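Why this split exists: single-chain examples teach little about how molecules sit against one another. For that reason, every record in the complexes split bundles all components of an assembly together and asks for one structure covering all of them. Below is a record exactly as it appears in the raw files.
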Amino acid sequence: MKRLWVLIAVAALATWACSGAAPEGPRKLKFALIPKALDIPVFNYADVGARREAAALGDVEVIYRGPDHADQLLQKQMLESFIQQKVDGIAISVLNAEFLTSTIDQAVDAGIPVVTWDSDAPASKRFAFYGVDDFKSGQEMGKAAAKLLNGKGTVAYITSLGAYNLARRLDGVKDVLKNYPDIKVIETYDVQEDAVRASQMIASGSNRYPDLGAWISVGGWPVFTQNALAPVPPTTKVISFDTNPPAPDLVKAGKAHVLIGQKYFGWGSETVKLLYDAVKNGKRPATPIIDSGVDVVDINNVDQYIALWKKMESGK
Amino acid sequence: MTSIWRAREFSTVLILLAEVLFFAWYLWPEAGRSHPFLNSGNFLLILKYSSIYGIAAIGAAVVIISGGIDLAPGAIIALTTVITGYLFVEAGWPLWAGASVGLMVGALAGLLSSWLIVRMRLPPFIATLGVMGILRGTAFIITEARFYDLSAKLPRNWHIAGISIDWLGPAVMIALAVVFQRLMTGYQWGRSVSAVGGNETAALFSGIPVNWIKTTTYVLSGTLAAVSGVVLAVVQGQGKADLASGYELDIIASAVVGGASLVGGRGSVAGAVLGALIFGVLRNALPQIPGATFYDRLIVGVVVIGIVVMDQMLTRRSGNA
């Protein structure tokens, strides 16, 4: 037992010795970039964008860390860990706004500026949000669906219940489609942020509703893989969020018809710029909500979009 | 026999310390920075998050020592946060009353598992898998994908007698570990749990009420998972159906790494808590290493196998001596 106490005492002493801050010196600014989860492919582009911007600024280091899957408790722990580490700024895509609001406030109170991207925590003390106006982008999807269906037919929604940004997008879709009384909503599927579950639901939904007019997905789950849309009959239109590969290929193959793309690389580059301006120059945006706008991709512009994507992905 | 236990727990402490020292060295900061891992604030963070797993791992260890397995703790944690949140936020009950009902639901969930295992003769894996689904489903039905925001009704920066609420989980975990370690080693009930897990037939012939012992282990496991749920709801301030998804495997892994044998008869609740801390340190430190998050599960898998293999070698050596 004595051995145990000696070991614990040594560990405690080492902890105490290292608790104090080391002397200050010239160094790079450290910005933490936290996605909702690392297993959601689109967030890697935020990392590419952030590194490109950091390289351009010269004195910024980007730390891209997140939970390996969408675990809100793990994301909260990481945020708290970055507060402990006293990073110079935090840019976070929030998994659960209410759950993280107090922790974001804790970071700001500790002198660390926070911006949110992709998914906001509007009640928190974050100084800016960069991302799509979810309601407006939902309206774009609604307009696309109405046009593809000529104002008549049935639609099924794909969403993930509980996420604020997805709920706003769905509100936008509904806001447009309420003006088309001949378009009927027959089902709303909750895929729980899971692309595999989305594939299963698309397959079973296509089987149950072979005459379905359109699938409207407010997240990119149907276009994250080549195969999820395979069971969809050619008469059914697909309008989906997200334009990252392989989604444009699905447009070229005629499986998806309209895609709404976010500024994936901008999630990283623009939030690094915002943090840099706040920390280095004391400048903050005039309004906290910065609408990134969306890219609308269909068969008419898909080739240009693919070319642009390749350029951005190379980090240039 | 007692010396083996002591040696096993001591080796778990050594592994934990080695892990801490490794990350302290690996994450040594550049000039002008404080240490990102080795500081008291970060250690509280590790304790706070590990306690969610550690409290439930105590119950899981007892079940495993009795020769069973419990897959329901993650779902019980979620359902407890939902029930506590519903009663406190929606129904306007005092927090203690909502939490008490949450604890009772945990105990009832354990009772249901034990009834399926003891009376219906279902294998523990199947029985608790079913109970897990029922409880998680119930949590989703109650919330309908909403959540209960306890934090809005709780004091901000809540301190009790000058101590931050962040210490609630670690304090409860340590207190429960001490109590149940004593119960398992110094009382007839604990010895009976080990006897049932070691050889159920022999335990029966020696007059141990096997069914009663099994029932108590599952009720205990359910109740302690509910304690984790109450801690989660109070400290994190939210009741939500998808909280603690998949935690059951981490909880079982904590108990196993802490010395619980999956064939029953052997293990330690103090070891289970140490196991939860070993994983807590990994969860805290790996995200601080570039690219290491992707290795998280791989490292956890290697750690589980490595420690259990080492445990078996240690046990064989003691048996041969």
